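Duplicate of #3305? Posting structure anyway:
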């Protein structure tokens, strides 16, 4: 196993920072690595704590009387200089349970009310997003959305369109649009499962 010799914080930003890692590989060669993290300091990095508390939450919810539509957002992202389809999502605030964070973020981004459903821990626990670049992890909350779509609670820094998509539109999105990978995998379930959230009963 590799060995981490030292870690240095390289930036001082509000939401994400870059850390430099000096390490030695399992083959006894020097390694210079960079980690983007939501952590505020070296001591809070997951490589320091060994813990995995969710930085954010992703919301997979269905909408409508027949629960046959999925709630998506189409958001402008500076990382790609364009729009991408995602699930509503956001950061978990300090001391906030991620289920509560999901309800809050759903309302802020879409104006909709989220009713989370109870699922096995294996389906909702935090998983790492892009481990080659960041220690960020996100939990997933599943549920039913209701109410009227609204942008009133969105932040001025956000550029988000709310999309309520049926299966035909989901097929088009997957074929033609940019889609975040975590969202894409769940949309594949949405297309193929006769019972929405049916896969959640497998563990």
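Output from current build:
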């Amino acid at each position: 196993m590799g060995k981490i010799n030292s870690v240095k914080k390289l930036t001082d930003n509000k939401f994400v920072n870059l850390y430099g890692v000096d390490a030695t590989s399992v083959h006894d060669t020097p390694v210079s690595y960079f980690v983007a993290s939501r952590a505020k300091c070296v001591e809070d990095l997951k490589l320091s704590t060994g813990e995995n508390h969710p930085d954010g939450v992703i919301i997979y919810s269905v909408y409508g009387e027949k629960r046959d539509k999925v709630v998506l957002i189409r958001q402008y992202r500076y990382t790609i200089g364009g729009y991408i389809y995602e699930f509503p999502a956001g950061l978990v605030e300090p001391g906030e349970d991620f289920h509560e964070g999901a309800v809050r973020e759903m309302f802020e981004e879409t104006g909709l009310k989220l009713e989370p459903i109870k699922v096995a821990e294996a389906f909702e626990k935090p998983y790492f997003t892009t481990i080659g670049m960041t220690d960020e992890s996100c939990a997933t909350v599943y549920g039913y959305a209701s109410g009227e779509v609204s942008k009133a609670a969105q932040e001025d820094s956000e550029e988000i369109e709310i999309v309520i998509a049926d299966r035909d539109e989901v097929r088009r999105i997957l074929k033609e649009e940019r889609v975040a990978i975590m969202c894409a995998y769940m949309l594949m379930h949405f297309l193929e499962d006769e019972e929405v959230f049916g896969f959640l009963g497998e563990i």
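Confirmed duplicate; merging threads. The first helix runs from residue 46 to 49. The radius of gyration is 19 Å.
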